[in-house]
Design brief:
Layout: H1 4-25, E1 35-39, H2 43-52, E2 56-57, E3 71-77, E4 80-86, H3 100-114, E5 118-127, E6 138-146, H4 156-162, E7 165-166, H5 171-177, E8 180-186, H6 194-202, E9 207-209, H7 212-221, E10 226-235, H8 242-268
Parallel strand pairs: 1-4, 1-5, 5-10, 6-8, 8-9
Antiparallel strand pairs: 2-3, 3-4, 5-9, 6-7, 6-10
The chain binds S-adenosyl-L-homocysteine.
S-adenosyl-L-homocysteine binds near residues 123, 208 and 211.
């Protein structure tokens, strides 16, 4: 058996070659998708996917800056190089590093390191029953925007703050999977103050999360197509307190999310961006 350093070096070289190969193959979208990055915010969301795709944890972590808590799982599933990244636990407080700041940094670093053809942001979200959402529903986000970046300087700064954008269009995937489609509004709070509520209404959102628009912003900046799959853990306009309802449902909803992400990845396998 080769000494561990050699194994690591050979592994690193093979991986670098795969990234190069993927870069060289990058086209207008007609070639089969080769590398995807799945960004998740919480360990509970990550683990069922790690098991399903039989990914292994990158214990070396040299692709990320030294000392960051970010975690990467990787492997090959149905011909796709999958990198599943999770921002890990906060170094001081030990909780999942949720929110836009961690998600943005991790997305940036992952695009730089893995040059993916496609990003999938998978996670949980609050849903609005007035817009037809129920617990455990899984949605594909057609649009994203922020609801807590208020810059009341008309006409352009206010729009910059809202940061509305369309996500990568996947009509065939939506049709094939019969998945619900809705708009997603992102902010850094789990609760909702009256100002956030009116922004969410103005954003016409069905879903509310803490990462989606940030991931989409970074991916757009670096021209990587992004799809967002969100499963509903709590009803924002319902009677139950959000944090309580979230904790009650997060495990079951993560399972539903894992089924939906698997269906999406199975659909993507062997297809090009323009097939989606
Ligand atoms: N108590 C949790 C904290 C999770 S924060 C813990 O133990 O780790 C909520 C996470 O779920 C975020 O990643 C966010 O994107 C998503 N989320 C679910 N419901 C949400 C809601 N109603 N509003 C905002 N984010 C929500």
């Amino acid at each position: 058996m080769a000494p561990p350093e050699e194994t690591t070096a050979a592994h690193a070289a093979a991986e670098a070659a795969a990234i190069e190969e993927n870069l060289a193959a990058k086209t207008t979208g007609d070639q089969p998708i080769s590398t995807i990055v799945i960004v998740v915010a919480m360990q509970t969301e990550a683990l069922p996917l790690v098991a399903k795709f039989e990914l292994s944890e990158d214990l070396d972590r040299s692709v990320f800056p030294k000392g960051v808590p970010w975690v990467r799982y990787h492997g090959t599933y149905k011909g796709l190089h999958i990198n599943l990244v999770w921002p890990g636990k906060d170094a001081v407080l030990g909780v999942d590093s949720v929110g836009t700041v961690s998600a943005s940094l991790l997305t940036y670093a992952s695009i730089q390191a893995f040059k993916p053809d496609l990003i999938i942001n998978a996670g949980t979200a609050g849903g609005f029953q007035a817009k037809g959402a129920s617990i455990i529903d899984v949605y594909l986000a057609s649009d994203v925007a922020f609801h807590d970046r208020r810059i009341p300087i008309p006409v352009i700064f206010d729009l910059y703050g809202i940061g509305a954008r369309r996500t990568f269009s996947t009509p065939n995937l939506v049709k094939q999977l019969g998945i619900k489609v809705g708009k997603l509004s992102t902010g850094d709070s789990l609760d909702m103050c009256p100002q956030d509520e009116s922004s969410i209404t103005a954003n016409d959102a069905t879903l509310k999360d803490m990462e989606g628009a940030a991931v989409a912003y970074v991916a757009d900046l670096l021209s990587v197509p992004t799809i967002l799959i969100k499963a509903v853990t709590d009803i924002v306009d319902g009677p139950k307190p959000t944090a309580e309802e979230f904790m009650e449902n997060v495990v079951a909803v993560s399972a539903a999310l894992h089924y939906a992400v698997t269906e999406v990845v199975d659909f993507i396998s062997g297809k090009s961006l323009s097939d989606l």
